Amino acid sequence: MAMKPGLSLRISQHLALTPQLQQSIRLLQLSTLELSQEVNQMLDDNPFLEVSEEAAPAEEFGLPQLDTPVPLGDREAEMAVSSTVEYASESSGPVSEDAVTPLSAADAESWEGDGTVEMAPDDNEWGGEAKAHGNNLGTEDDVDAGELARTQESLQSFLHRQALAVRLSEEDRVALRFLIESLNDDGYLEDSLQSLAEGLGPQDEEQAEQLVHHLTVALRILQDFEPVGVGAANLGECLRLQLRALRRQRPAEDPHQRVLAVAMRICNQPMDLLARRDIKRLVQLCSTTDALVREAIAVIARLEPKPGRRFVNVERNIVIPDVLVVQVGKGANARFRAQINPEVMPRLRVHDIYANALKQHRSTGSDASNYAALQQRLQEARWFIKNIQQRFDTILRVSTAIVERQKSFFQHGVLAMRPLVLREIADELGLHESTISRVTTAKFMATPMGTFELKYFFGSGLGTETGGNASSTAVRALIKQFIEAESSAKPLSDSQLSDMLKEQGIACARRTVAKYREGLKIAPASLRRAL
Questions:
Q1: Measured between alpha carbons, how far is 316 from 327 in angstroms, rounded to an integer?
Q2: Has residue 452 been placed in a domain?
Q3: What is the DSSP-derived secondary structure letter of residue 145?
Q4: Cα gap 101→113, rounded to integer Å
Q5: Sign of the alpha-carbon dihedral angle for 96, 102, 103, 104
Q6: 343 class by beta-carbon count within 10 Å (0-12 exposed, 13-18 middle, 19+ buried)
Q7: C or N: which end of the chain has fewer Cβ atoms within 10 Å?
Q8: Taking a C-beta distance cutoff of 8 angstroms, is the pair 382, 120 a contact?
Q9: Does the bond joining 227 to the residue before it have cis omega, within 30 degrees of 0?
Q10: CA-based nearest residue to 52, from 343, 388, 322, 346
């Protein structure tokens, strides 16, 4: 049976994400550090992009109508990207940076602009820095954001300084340095000396034994350093190291030595017995009296379970806020205003000399392809500046809306936080909910009450007797306040906390209280009870 050739026409609709929109969405979800890395990479790759040391007027090509709702097409495109991200997260775990676009990774990496070759009427219009419109960076309210990220010594640096005062052979000194760098954030040495030695790739068994020997010597020295307890393999050893140091500080005839000896025996037992305060079982295992066990547990409770806590790897935990909230006026006339932190604002512009040279040199023939490629690089620089500007514009708009809705928080604290969901801000600004989610993730706001991630200001509402709503964030703060004021001999149970909230007019079930308490990392009443 022969088939007849024919033509058919089919009409269909589909969403196409332009490279510009892809880049805009990707930049929006980057943190401050990631954005800085992205800007540095673009400066290295694109000769038409340069850093401007001086402030310049905002781009005329930027966002002429800042408060205009996003067109329906772009909102649908954002929705499509959001759906793609959700599908990827459900099907293959964590979403990679490339997962926000249905295009292939090769397409994203090979993007050379938006494909157009038209020049702007005047490249000087793109010569200003990528500055958010109306970012309120007035001289009267300039804030020194550097104070928010003061330098602090790390645990490793603190230990290396102590190591300089110890006389060691070169092999032991190297081993000590290696152990210090192998500690985790809490100051623990999680890997055994044998596994650490094997990781160094010994050539034979004899060399492996030598490595273990040097590491053993170095570990004994490390465990004598401050903070006491550093270099322990687990919690029990950490507590024993601190108890050993306490025993050394007291004379042998000191009566308190008996309590410290019992505490040492308790720390040799399974830690869950100590956590549950199983007095009866500990009395049996330690062959001592009830009174001594109670005294010993009281001593252990004053020890530090995480020696590295006060250092907390500060280099990674420094937060540079994207937004600063400043107070204007005092008392009843006080107002709060959000502004972009000038420290995180990239100062970018198109390289005028290169752009003007390209404009004057219109080639034909064999140079035409090179000329078109350079035009695309120039257009790529323009779009990058515009998208950076749009990123900060969006962050500022969202932050201003948050500040407006959470005025009570800035005046009275977390107990005055009102319920707020992403959709409220999205509807107010004419943006998609997924855009608000991207803006509020890994973006921080410095306020008179402290520095918070933008997501902190969002929380669901719990019903009240007056028919209103109380923010879940405020309820958490209230639960924490109740627990801090409780009697250590009779800590409050979750049911009692639920009843106390009901007395405040807030309907919060016991299970919800337990969930909030666990989120605050507060132990249940049985473990909070003092001896």
A1: 29
A2: no
A3: G
A4: 16
A5: positive
A6: middle
A7: N
A8: yes
A9: yes
A10: 346
Cα distances (angstroms) measured from residue 418 to each of 334, 344, 491, 518: 19, 29, 28, 22
Q: Which of 412, 392, 413, 414 is nearest to 338 (CA)?
A: 392
Q: Which residue has the tokens 């044998």?
A: 194
Concatenated DSSP letters for 239-289?
HHHHHHHHHHHS-TT-THHHHHHHHHHHTTS-HHHHHHT-HHHHHHHHT--
**Of 369, 402, 435, the domain-final residue:** 402
pLDDT at 98: 39
Q: Which of 346, 315, 442, 343 is nearest to 41 (CA)?
A: 346
**pLDDT tens, 112-138?**
333 443 444 444 433 344 444 444 444
Is 32 in contact with 344 (CB distance < 8 Å)? yes
DSSP label at 417? P
For residue 259, the enclosing domain spans: 235-301
CA distance 79 to 433: 9
Domain boundary among 222, 248, 271: 222
Residue 234: the pLDDT is: 92
What pLDDT, on the 0 to 100 scale, is given for residue 152? Answer: 63
- Please choose, from the candidates 315, 338, 321, the residue with its C-alpha nearest in 3D space to the C-alpha of residue 443: 321
More confident residue, 200 or 220: 220
SS3 state of residue 49 = strand
Q: Within this chain, do residues 250 and 356 fall inside the same structural domain, yes or no? A: no
Please report where in the chains the tokens 């201003």 appear, as a residue.
Answer: 400
Counting beta carbons within 10 angstroms of the beta carbon of residue 53, is it exposed (0 to 12), middle (13 to 18) or buried (19 or more)?
Answer: exposed
Question: In the Cβ-directed half-sphere of 74, how many Cα atoms lie within 13 Å?
Answer: 14
| Rounded-to-integer distance, Cα 135 and Cα 322, Å | 12
Looking at the fold, whether 27 and 138 belong to one and the same domain comes out as yes
**Cα end-to-end span (Å), the chain:** 94
Strand partners, 461: 471
Q: The whole model's pTM is what?
A: 0.57
What pLDDT digit, counting tens, does each position of 32-72 carry?
888 888 889 888 888 888 887 655 444 443 344 444 455 55
| Nearest by Cα to 472 from 518, 409, 419, 406 | 419
For residue 447, being part of any structural domain is answered with no
Q: 297 and 328 share a domain?
A: no
Paired with 328 in beta bridges are 335
* Residue type at position 362: R
| CA–CA–CA angle 152, 520, 495 (5° rounding) | 160
